[in-house]
Amino acid sequence: MAWLCTLCQRYIAGCYGNVLQHVKCHQYDENFQLKCGINSCQETYTIYESFRSHVYRKHREVLHPSGSVNNNETLSVDNISNSETDDDDINNVPDYNNDPDDVSSDSSDNDDQMEHSAQNKPDLKSSAARLILKLHQECKVTQSALNSMVNGIKELWKEATQELQEQTERVLGRYYTEKNGKLKETTDCSYEIPLLKSLQHLLNIEVIREQVMNSHSRPNSVLGDYCDTTAFKESELFNEHPCALQIQLFYDELEVCNPLGSKAKKHKLGLVYYTLGNLEPKLRSSLKSIHLLSITKHQFVTKYGIDHILSPIVEEIKQLESEKGVQFLFDGHWVAFRGTLTVFSADNLAAWSVGGYKALASAFRKCQYCMVTAEQMQTQFVESDVQIRTPETYNYHCNEEDCNDPSLASHLATTYGIKVLHQT
């Protein structure tokens, strides 16, 4: 017995399991609606997963019928052929009447619809399957031509991703490891998007360029943005160039796997984002205004130091801070822009990592704002009762730890609550 897909009226297979797999390619079609029709079943569905569950529960016998001679005769996405089907077999296809008034479902089917509705989203795999079916059925492309096209697209995609990887990859270090008695070269890498190139694309957007050229500082004394702060008003750069670029960086660490599983920390990543402080807060808070700069495995951040990871970004910011600034191309004209880092934000753990502070719960001094000890933290809660860390004291502590005596450096790191920042 031959089974026909009633949605496209083209796909025919001897096994209904193949038809069920094919129907999945139509699940994102507009106004998707399918009546079961198996053994005169009148159940109608608008969600593929609910229909599939219904078939497995009520009509499992048609999925892999025993003794059928046509089980392997199919026009599938992976193996499209030009096999012909007898007219008698086509005439034996059950009557599918897509009448929307006959929509009905039992309570378990409704539960399946609610369960799988969140999964009803387009994906690349189904889009590729629909494209292959369309090329074969509507454009009459042969199977050999389809195979050549798919192989060519795979090679093109591989080359494109390889080129993109080479453009963003930065080698942090190379070393050799022994495996099965053989030396194998291992490369530690991070992936970075140049800040200046990203700014070039952003400033070519007219809306963003208008925001940069027009300051949004408030004329009253209300403090609502960096433009309203004393640091902005007293800055020599922003006094001379009110339209200078305000780079705001954000660093965060995240787990891409289960943080409680066996792979915890192995796939942990450190990411650096930036946004332009020149944009109004309502525009700056949009996800489209937050841009990625760097992705690095956390183990590499610990191994090579955060200074090494951030060094390319720091160098590009120094170019913006120089007297000549950086030239950006607009409509065939080069325009010089200056800028600087105005805000660096992070959560507690990431801030400790960037600042070089000890992040362990057992650390003697674990606060990044003051010199309070772990014991004093239980009784002292007022700022006037503790010694506040300042840039001067921070630099002094770092210079003290930069010594040739490892034992003394370890003692000072415990005393000051700052890890040795200088990586060798």
Give a verbal description of the structure.
The chain is an alpha+beta fold and 424 residues long. It has four domains: 3-136, no CATH class; 141-171; 187-355, no CATH class; 357-424, no CATH class. Helix content is 37%, strand content 17%. The chain is built from 16 helices and twelve strands. It has a six-stranded mixed β-sheet. Strands 1-2 form a two-stranded antiparallel ribbon. Strands 3-4 form a two-stranded antiparallel ribbon. It is elongated, with a radius of gyration of 32 Å.
List the helices and strands and how they pair.
Layout: E1 3-4, E2 12-13, H1 16-23, E3 34-35, E4 44-45, H2 48-58, H3 87-91, H4 107-116, H5 124-137, H6 143-168, E5 169-179, E6 182-192, H7 195-203, H8 206-213, H9 230-233, H10 236-240, E7 245-254, E8 269-276, H11 281-284, E9 291-297, H12 298-304, H13 306-321, E10 326-330, E11 333-337, E12 339-346, H14 348-355, H15 391-401, H16 406-416
**Number of domain modules:** 4
Order of helices and strands: EEHEEHHHHHEEHHHHEEHEHHEEEHHH
Structural class category: alpha+beta
Number of helices: 16
Strand content: 15-25%
In total, the number of strands is 12
**Secondary structure: helix percent:** 25-40%
The end-to-end distance, rounded to whole angstroms, is: 74 Å
